[in-house]
Amino acid sequence: MTIWPAFKLSLLGVLSDKAAMPPVLLGSLVYFFFYPLPYLPQGVQHIPVVVADYDATPLSRRLARNLNATRELEVTGVTRDVSAAVPLLQRGEIGGIVAIPSSFNQDVARGTPTGVTVMGNGAYIVVDSTILTTTAQVLAATAAAPLAAHFVQTGAPPALVRRASTTGPLLIHQPMFNTVQGYQSYVVPASMSLVVHQLLIIGFCALLGTWIERGRWPVAPQGKLTIGAFTGVLTAFSLLAWCATLFWIGFVFWFHDLPRGGNLGAAIVVGALYSVAIAALAVCLGCWIADRERPFQLIGAISVPLPFLSGFAFPTEDSLPWPLRWLAQGLPTTHGIRAMLMLNQMGASWHETAPDIGRLLLVTSAYVGIAWWLAARKARAPERAVAHIELCGHPGAAR
After folding, report:
1. 276 φ, ψ to 5°?
2. 253-258 long-range CB contacts below 8 Å, 24 or more apart?
3. CA distance linking residue 139 with residue 355, whole number of Å
4. CA 262, CA 367: separation in Å to the nearest integer?
5. Helical pair 227-247 and 264-289, crossing angle rounded to 10 deg
6. For residue 73, what are the β-bridge partners?
7. CA 320 from centroid of its chain's CA atoms
8. Dihedral angle at the C-alpha atoms of 324, 325, 327, 333, nearest 10 degrees?
9. Confidence check: pLDDT of 392 > 50
10. What are the structural domain ranges in the chain?
11. How far is CA 223 from CA 201, 206, 285, in A?
């Protein structure tokens, strides 16, 4: 069989198979709507806190109002005793407690070092960090004016007064790519390559499992899979994977306003190479699993460690043992996620992404060769089994 008939049979097989079609087509649409939803707030906002104001002065009340004016915190109550707020923190009704000492106003007026106490639930590291950082910024801004007034009264140098009255931070931290510093802009672009990888491999493996269970490959008449037929199968699978990739980097990222389009042309080309790697790996796994239902269990179970092995969450050189680092180098997701992030989100050039693209090309070539060897063996194995049964059952076989 030549390339074109095998391409049509494979494409129609995926679109008409009840096990292959949902993850390949519906899966991308479902993930488009539901996967980014938990990350829509981008950052932690409106954390309920209680202010324990032991000072009860205009300055301490101004601090409480300034805390409530921030996007991150929401003051749900003010008390004179921390013990009244601790039960709320223990029950999870609030995220933290800000305790203002009784000498707060006096210390600021005298220029004496002062501060507030922040209490939180250690189980929520991000929430605690947000409360602590926001409180420190608001405290510095609130105390700036009274502190400058104290320096004026004491005859401090004008430069010191100007520095004390400045409420702006000395260092402005502005990321180059994740400009909103949000979780959605951090997680979703990196997870896109993994979502496409896993969903389409499940669908392709389910289709191959159906062919193997039936003992007949539509693209391999008489159990003979030609190079042309294999190329047609691989092209059909790659086209579907590439369309899913383009849907995500072209429409989904625009719809959810995620970082995108840094080097779109290169991202499209690398996406095509990554799609071939997905298709080749799917053929390898489908021939190895050789079952219609098993891919949903196996492929889904291994999804969790793949993003960590890719290195986008944290560097793998120092945090993973060497066997896992070697394993990661043989996975298309490792190089595909890195290359797509650098090109589409960061606008990297071909030269800057050449190492990852080269490794992805090497991995893709290896999987294409393995896929051809496994597919050729699986396509003719059922025919041999049938021929052996017929031979053994023939009346003249015993003679």
Report:
1. -65, -40
2. 253/189, 253/192, 253/344, 255/32, 256/36, 256/184, 256/188, 258/184, 258/185, 258/188, 258/189
3. 47
4. 29
5. 130
6. 47
7. 19
8. 110
9. no
10. 3-39+180-393, 47-165
11. 24, 19, 19
pLDDT in tens, 49-65: 999 999 999 989 999 99
Q: End-to-end alpha-carbon separation of the chain, Å?
A: 38
List phi, psi (to 5°) of 51: -100, 120
Residue from 19, 384, 24, 70 nearest 195 by CA:
24
Q: How far apart are CA 269 and CA 181, in angstroms?
A: 28
Strands 96-100 and 47-53: parallel
pLDDT over 90 at 68, yes or no:
yes
* Sign of torsion over alpha carbons 297, 204, 209, 376: negative
* Whole-number Å distance between alpha carbons of 21 and 203: 6
Cβ count near 224 (within 10 Å): 13
Find all residues with CB under 8 Å of 332, minimum gap 6, and list them.
Answer: 197, 274, 277, 278, 281, 360, 363, 364, 367
pLDDT tens sequence across 111-159:
777 778 999 887 777 788 889 889 988 888 887 766 656 555 565 566 5
Sequence-ordered list of residues with C-beta below 8 angstroms from that of 340, at least 6 positions apart, any chain = 189, 192, 193, 249, 267, 270, 271, 274
R_g (Cα) of the chain, nearest Å: 30
CB atoms within 10 A of CB 364: 23
pLDDT digits (tens, 9 = 90+) for 29-39: 888 878 887 77
Which CATH topology does 47-165 take? abc type-2 transporter like fold (3.40.1710)
**Residue carrying the six token digits 């702006």:** 168
What does the alpha-carbon distance between residue 256 and residue 233 come to, in Å, rounded to a whole number?
33
Neighbours of 290 (CB within 10 A): 17
Instruction: Determine contact, residues 287/213, Cβ cutoff 8 Å.
Output: no
Query: What is the C-alpha separation between 18 and 297, in angstroms, rounded?
Result: 17
- Per the structure block, which two tokens stand in for 222? 């008489």
Give the DSSP per-residue string, 255-324. HTT-S--SSHHHHHHHHHHHHHHHHHHHHHHHHHH--SSHHHHHHHHTTTHHHHHHTSSS-HHHHS-HHH
What 3-state DSSP class applies to 396? coil
Taking the C-alpha atoms of residue 55 and residue 64, their distance in angstroms, rounded to an integer, is 11
